[in-house]
Amino acid sequence: MTNSSLILSLLLSMCAFIACKTQEPVSVSTYPIPPITQVSSPPSATGAMNPNANLSQRPKNIILLIGDGMGMTQITLGMLANGDKSALESYPVVGIHKPRSYDDLITDSAAAATAFATGKRTYNGAIGVDADTIPVPTILELCESQGMPTGLVATSTIVHATPASFASHNPYRKNYEAIAADFMDANVDVLIGGGKKYFERRTTDASNLLDTLRSLDYYVSDFRDDIDDLPTETLQNIAYFTADTDPLKADMGRDYLLPATKYTLDYLDHKSGQEGFFAMIEGSQIDWGGHANDDQYVITEYLDYDPVIAYAYEWAKADGETLVIVTADHETGGLAIQPDSTMDSLVTAFTSTYHTATMIPVFAFGPGSELFAGIYDNTAIFDKMVDLLELHDQSKQPD
Fold first, then answer.
1. Catalytic residue among 109, 165, 284, 395
2. Single pTM value for the model
3. Is 341 a known active-site residue?
């Protein structure tokens, strides 16, 4: 067994068999703790790269895979439901990040994605702004400023918290139409996700942002056309809307995530030339299964995401210049796998319908992946990516 497989097995074992029996009340104890204060993290947790670090190679491309709500037990549950196999077992580097927000031990997806995208902790609900609601440059914007094409793919709406935090700046995550308007200035090369109505049939103004996208030389298409029919060798930007509002669940027939991933990586690779690219691809609805306390929903969404994790690994392995990072923004539901579970019959329980404060695993493969071992703040993921792409000077400039 390799070191990475051993680490993964230990982590899974720690989270797989905890909590009390299914269907029995969950006992909750409250202990007083000091209020959260904003203090500097120890140097080992900030993610800033040692300037003397001996990297064998820097990546040209970065693929960031975010399984929303995908904590260790969600991974364990999906793995067991998949015959005790997961694509994550191929990733040689395993780390852990601390997912709290600026003033709360429990982060939401907006604050967590903003931490990944900007390196700043912010309040829950914030999109691409700091705790004072001041816009902060995102890694996607920094890449675009250096001529690197970028892509955002999600199984939620494209204006939902996670993708929005990479391309928008708004004080509140549910200002979907304002977030859609921000995409007109973001110049993201590939946008794939739901939420077409926030662009086309708006209630806050009479704008048709699909027409605006076309005027910006986007190729605009939607779920009425097959994703395989999108143009490949083109310099046009791409906007493909997979649903008018939220996309379907995977077990209701949604099947676009893997084809969208294949398309996005090939498109960005063709367009990037020597500059490299940045892509964020989210398995959004793992989180929704946790909120619903529905273990089957969690399983089917994880199993929809696992082939994406596998494909990104194989794509990066063949390319040789691509770093893949797989993580989650937070855990959702306080999910536990219970006593009396077997490989054929998994017994689960939830402690919450919201997120929890448990630390989150990070898996990495490719040039620079060694930097993602250890325990660090969620903001360190931004710091590490920016350092590896040598964008750090630009990241210190005002927005």
1. 109
2. 0.89
3. no
